[in-house]
Design a protein that fits this description.
The complex is a heterodimer of chains A (about 220) and B (about 210). Chain A has about 220 residues and is α+β, with helices and mostly antiparallel strands. Chain A has a 5-stranded antiparallel sheet with strand order 1-5-4-3-2, covered by helices on one side. In chain A, helix 2 packs across helix 6 and helix 3 crosses helix 5. The relative contact order of chain A is 0.12. By secondary structure, chain B is of the alpha+beta class. Chain B contains 5 helices and 6 strands, in the order αβαβββββααα. In chain B, strands 1, 2, 3, 4, 5 and 6 form a 6-stranded antiparallel sheet that branches. Chain B is elongated and about 75 Å long. The chains are: A alpha+beta (about 220), B alpha+beta (about 210).
Amino acid sequence: MPSSIEQARNGPHARRIRDIISVWNRKGHYYLGLYFLFFLWLFAFTGLLLNHSWSFAEFWPTRTVTKFVREVRLAGSSGDLERARQVMQQVGIQGEIEWTDAKVDSPALAFRVARPGWTWQVNLNAESTSATVEQTAINNWGVMRVLHTFTGIRAGDLRNDRDWILTTVWALSMDAVAAGLGLMVVSGLYLWIGIPAKRTLGAIVLLLGSLVCAFFVVGLWLVY
Amino acid sequence: MPKQLYLLTRNLHLYIGLFLSPFLLVFAASVFFLVHSRSSQPAGSTRLASDLALPAGIERLHGREQVAALRPVLKQIGVQGEVNYIRSIPKEHRLVLPISLPGRETLVDLNLLQRTATVVESSTGLAGAVVHLHKMPGPHNANIRGNSTYMRVWRWLADIATYGLLFLTLSGIYLWAVLRAERRIGLALIGAGGISFFGLIYAIVH
């Protein structure tokens, strides 16, 4: 005779909950995949571009560089970031600010502004009256590559921070894609567990993948 | 025939997905560190190796030849991994080499005149390991990249994971398209994803 715990586990109420979880897990698996489809294609394809340096996707030799000087007028004697923003507004450029030298609060100011496809090296003169701008434009292959790595921050670089709203939005979308991919993996594992006929071969394949991956993540470190 | 194709696609989607799932989790988890962590490399332990047997003319070599010539030297000082690049300081007869393994960074400073090496080893932990694997082999120093066995194998695995992911998306589209009841909502999600994706890229680039 089944115990009360077994009855509760196999009762109609528990079965209905399991069915609901199963259905929504399956739906969630492909809903996430369909929503993130273009993001996954971009990051997968640009990952290949970054790893292979294929000649058809070269972008640096075909870059175009132009230089111009603009008169600027800065209001007040605020900090470097505020001064850089004023210069950018008057020059007509938008993007992520990267500090390229260690000067802080000096009359002269040098910084780079970047967004996928464009880079501007801006040098403000000591009198803060004119800005020399060197603009570099790259082709669409370059744009795609930059999108893969466009986070606005770098490990070990504490001076630069995300200061453009679209960099933050793009970084959050990278987070969302990564979280979505993680959820798809977990929901996929749940879907597989629900197919008893595929459990053995699936377990072998999963174990193989896990061992190979674990060897690289922790194994090499332990061995050497 | 369509049923056989469906079953084959479903099985391949399942088994390729299962094999790749740990790799995809590594790539996904490392994204959070790459996007949010700015911590620098932790301070390492320093040791000095002396009386090294150095190949003649090592300073004059370049690229892969130089890396290959330095391998026995690295073996003498017990350092393994991928040589990221070699910085030559001719005036001081020094070669400086950062060497990576997932979870460990080593900086070797070779003094060719004194035949000594200062070795600084630091552990970057699990986070450092997944970040390193995510970024490798990468676009930098392509002329010497893949100078260690693990990197040559990882290059293949990273490719397999990426092509596999592309296959999973395409086979996933096919498996979804077969489900007539889900087509409308699926198309709406592809549309919503497309608008978010292209809208965001348009705003960032233009």
